[in-house]
Amino acid sequence: MAVYAFYSAGGFAREIHAGFVHSIGMVDNGERGEVVFIDDAAESQGQVIRGSRVISYEEAKSIPGIKVNVAFADPKLRRKKVEMCAADGLETFSSFAPTSIIGDDVKIGHSAIFAHNSMVTSDAQIGDSFHCNIYAYVSHDCIVGDFVTFAPRASMNGRVKIEDDVYVGTGAIILPGKTDRYLTIGKGAIIGAGAVVTKDVEPGSVMVGAPAKPR
């Protein structure tokens, strides 16, 4: 039996759990699988949440063929855990809620999470380990790097490029780029909740307000 593990038993992992269990992603070569949580906290291990066991990372490594999706929202922590899993030879999987929408000519990397009512419209390129939370969307002709997080209702309009390790907060809006030039969000930037991004963002910046300015 295939075993799928969400690394984290926190709130976001619990949110996406049901959507994954009820999606076609639960079927691996015609064989129905088990879903578990991995949690590093000893007090959580051994519990059963939403009908799924909570196990340690060490136990996860002992399960043949286990597939892991790291569900931490923090891009830096998620990258660290994904690299650890890769070093230990663990495979990854992507989770698409039944109500998520993936449009035409969209390329998505490994280990993505698309929550309920999230969307990529068309002609977009998404990197590895992307998190698209509830009601968040990526519009046409966009490029998203690796380990990017969209919090609920984050909105990315057309012709925007987001580099690696960016966090886009709840309700933030990234306005569209131009036909001949992407609006670019630099690596490791944080876009605050409710911010409205109207121009390029420097790497590592923290942007807040409408229009968004460095904090």
TrEMBL record:
Keyword terms of this UniProt record: Acyltransferase, Transferase
Ligand binding (substrate): 39-40
UniProt site (Increases basicity of active site His): 141
Residue numbers annotated as active site: 140
GO molecular function: acyltransferase activity
Entry-linked PANTHER family: ACETYLTRANSFERASE, UDP-N-ACETYLBACILLOSAMINE N-ACETYLTRANSFERASE
Family the UniProt entry places it in: Belongs to the transferase hexapeptide repeat family.
Protein name: Sugar O-acyltransferase (Sialic acid O-acetyltransferase NeuD family)
Organism: Shinella fusca
